């Protein structure tokens, strides 16, 4: 029999998910909250909170009800800030689609997390920051590439959270098809379904799908594929050219390397967007949807959220998708892959 971990004393019945037996409700598109609390890469300041709450309201009211976060989101003393903000916004929101809000968090495979108990504690800590149950709990990355002995206990803890009724579903992130099959077999022995899989996927990062063929495995097991960084950190918005100006810091360094080689793709994307009377970002997101994934673009302003939402309610034609596919395949230097992505 699987070992059941004791629940933490602080966690009240109200923070347990009453819907672990019900299905997750996932929309066509979600919202990523990596930037909410991240100063190093995204320049977050606490003065942005009011605007971020406006983003949350706009998304939920328009049917974008999936919010993806992580217990590692936020830099320095702001670690966990993304979860805290989401919890605050969700509790304050009283508008349309309130009951459909789905908060997904990712638990990091930190080197000091070595047991299933530590993973259960991490999930409970996320629920405490949110002030509500976690709907979807995900393994942020696999330590299989550097500490394979660590992975088993952490996966057991992930399954414990589901079995104990704290979450509606479990998912994975940055797993390739081989490792996904291995985890699926492990979870199947306990009767724990894998609801979702996240990979970095966009017109500038097709590797997990075209090379690793991870979507084929997801389809085989009924796992929904989620596309993170679907706008390639902003490159696919068309805001940046070879001449710049580029963002400050690490993003700027990366853009200087990638934007010149992505020029043919960006030209094709711009042409398709013009023909469809859409923005480049909207076309890039709609392409992800057409490929059977749920994109989770980030948004720091109401304008960005509204632009992202404009990717919904219409569909790219087959010829436009084929044109974009061809342009994506011809890119000289694609997006840098996540170092934790497994095969």
TrEMBL record:
Pfam families: Aldo_ket_red. It is an enzyme of class 1 (oxidoreductase). Its EC number is 1.-.-.-. CDD domains: AKR_AtPLR-like. Keywords: Oxidoreductase. GO terms for molecular function: oxidoreductase activity. Residues 29-327 form the NADP-dependent oxidoreductase domain. GO terms for cellular component: cytoplasm. The keyword Oxidoreductase applies. The keyword Nucleus does not apply. This is Putative oxidoreductase. It comes from Acaryochloris thomasi RCC1774. The lineage of its organism: Bacteria, Bacillati, Cyanobacteriota, Cyanophyceae, Acaryochloridales.
């Amino acid at each position: 029999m699987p070992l059941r971990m004791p629940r933490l004393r602080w966690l009240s019945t109200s923070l347990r998910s009453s819907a672990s037996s019900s299905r997750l409700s996932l929309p066509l598109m979600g919202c990523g909250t990596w930037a909410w609390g991240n100063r190093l890469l995204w320049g977050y300041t606490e003065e942005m909170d009011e605007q971020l709450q406006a983003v949350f309201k706009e998304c939920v009211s328009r049917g974008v009800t999936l919010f993806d976060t992580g217990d590692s989101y936020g830099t320095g003393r702001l670690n966990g800030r993304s979860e805290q903000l989401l919890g605050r916004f969700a509790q304050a929101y009283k508008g349309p689609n309130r009951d459909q809000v789905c908060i997904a968090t990712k638990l990091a495979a930190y080197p000091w997390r070595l047991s299933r108990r530590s993973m259960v504690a991490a999930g409970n800590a996320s629920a405490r920051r949110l002030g509500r149950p976690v709907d979807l709990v995900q393994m942020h990355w696999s330590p299989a590439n550097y500490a394979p002995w660590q992975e088993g206990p952490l996966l057991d803890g992930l399954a414990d959270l589901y079995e104990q009724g704290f979450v509606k579903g479990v998912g994975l992130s940055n797993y390739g098809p081989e490792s996904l099959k291995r985890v699926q077999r492990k979870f199947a022995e306990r009767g724990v379904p894998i609801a979702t899989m996240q990979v970095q996927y966009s017109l500038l990062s097709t590797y997990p799908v075209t090379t690793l063929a991870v979507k084929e495995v997801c389809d085989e097991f009924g796992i929904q594929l989620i596309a993170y960084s679907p706008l390639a950190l902003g490159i696919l918005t068309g805001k940046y050219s070879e001449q710049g100006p580029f963002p400050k810091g690490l993003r700027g360094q990366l853009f200087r390397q990638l934007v010149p080689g992505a020029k043919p793709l960006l030209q094709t994307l711009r042409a398709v967007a013009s023909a469809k009377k859409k923005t480049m970002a909207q076309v890039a997101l709609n392409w992800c949807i057409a490929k059977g994934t749920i994109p989770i673009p980030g948004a720091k302003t109401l304008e960005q959220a509204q632009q992202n939402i404009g990717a919904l309610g219409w569909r790219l034609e087959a010829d436009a998708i084929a044109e974009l596919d061809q342009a994506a395949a011809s890119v000289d230097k694609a997006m840098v892959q996540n170092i934790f992505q497994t095969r």
